Amino acid sequence: MENSNNQDMLAIERLLSVEERQIRDSVRDFVNAEIVPITKQHFRDAIFPEYVVKGMAGLGIFGAHIDGYGCAGVSPVGYGLIMQELEKADSAIRSFASVQSSLAMTAIWLHGSEEQKNHWLPLMAEGKVIGAFALTEPDHGSDPGSMTTFASPNTKGWILNGEKFWITNASRANVIVVWAKTPDGIKAFIVEAPVKGLSVSEIKNKLSLRISSTGSLAFENIQLSNDSILEKSKGLSSALQCLNYARFGIAWGVMGAAEACLTETLNYTMQRTQFSRPIAAYQLVQSKLADMYTELSVGQLLAYQIADNKRSGTLHHSQISMAKYRNTQTALDIARTCRDLLGASGVLDDFVTMRHMMNLEAVNTYEGTRHMHQLAIGKHLTGIAAFDG
């Protein structure tokens, strides 16, 4: 959200506080210096750049929205801006920070004991411990309530059995927050890795989020102590609380990806000459640019509004659903149109747009598809659930 190439058409920059601008600029400088130059090669190689973790921790990115426990405690807008700047580089970078912060750390922060929070959160904020959030199963994506992972009580604590799929940081995590059914309902457990009975498999051949480390987890008779349970976790709603923190960050992050595509495409259309004129001089191109910048501005305002609602304590989960599905779809539409305007050059990874487009295909699906969020909004409007559960 900056007045560059006249992109900030609604002067959203003026809504930001001095501190929020400083947060954005410090993350932007780090991303441009340390992450942007290596994304192309890391996307080709499908390897996460481990060395950026220390720098991200040094900027206070991990758990930035949390007060205390060694975390930065920034405003909702400040946290959103962090996600925006990370996703300008690559959705996988934002996804890594989001899983660490909005999912794993938030689960411990919201549902853990003081002992668990005091032990794990400072280590995770410093990047010394990497977290994962294990909710999704191979056969239960949009219907996590039907999970089959089960934790049975025994004399030593709990025995964990089951399988999770599409888990970011699966092969890298030191701490995995695992959601499992118990005789008393769904609970969250901290599983420290490695541990006997835990098998991890990397998901290969992804065409989206290639920089992200994504895998499956299998739990076979893992013995957990009573101290491993997050005692404040009570049912699936506790997991959804964490997901809402992540969806909030996605609504901001995807606007960063869209802006990166637009910046690249605007510059290209100004420089690319056909029939003795830059293609930006043609009406069809200008109409597409106008539509995309209008949609970007609306999406940025939507992200800002849910952050303002969060700051005032009035944010409702249906608003997060609206922002997640609307902004993600908008960013994907922008990326696709930008790819078209780039012509044949748009399929080359010398340009960032197609990489963002491929990433956004996955972001559009995970943490609730468009249709699931539409149904959540529909339930809020009508009071009638159009889905089971």
Distance between the termini: 39 Å
Q: What string, H for helix and E for strand, traces the elements in order?
A: HHEEHHHEEEEEEEEHEEHHHH
What is the mean pLDDT?
95
- What's the number of extended β-strand segments? 12
Provide a concise account of the structure shown.
The chain is an alpha+beta fold. It has 3 domains: 12-125, Orthogonal Bundle (Butyryl-Coa Dehydrogenase, subunit A, domain 1); 131-235, Butyryl-CoA Dehydrogenase, subunit A, domain 2, CATH 2.40.110; 237-382, Up-down Bundle (Butyryl-CoA Dehydrogenase, subunit A, domain 3), CATH 1.20.140.10.
Describe the structure.
There is one protein chain. With 389 residues, this protein is of the alpha+beta class. It folds into three domains: 12-125, Acyl-CoA dehydrogenase/oxidase, N-terminal domain (Butyryl-Coa Dehydrogenase, subunit A, domain 1, Orthogonal Bundle), CATH 1.10.540.10; 131-235, Butyryl-CoA Dehydrogenase, subunit A, domain 2; 237-382, Up-down Bundle (Butyryl-CoA Dehydrogenase, subunit A, domain 3), CATH 1.20.140. Helix content is 51%, strand content 16%. The protein has ten helices and twelve strands. The chain has helices at residues 18-45, 52-58, 76-89, 91-111, 114-125, 236-271, 283-312, 317-341, 353-363, 370-382; strands at residues 67-68, 71-72, 131-134, 150-154, 157-168, 175-182, 185-192, 198-202, 214-224, 229-230, 273-274, 277-278. The strands form four sheets. The chain has a four-stranded mixed sheet, covered by helices on one side. Strand 1 and strand 2 form a beta hairpin. Helix 4 packs antiparallel against helix 5 (114-125) and helix 6 packs antiparallel against helix 9 (353-363). The longest helix is centred in the middle third of the chain and has 36 residues, at 236-271. The protein is globular. The two termini are 39 Å apart. The relative contact order is 0.12.
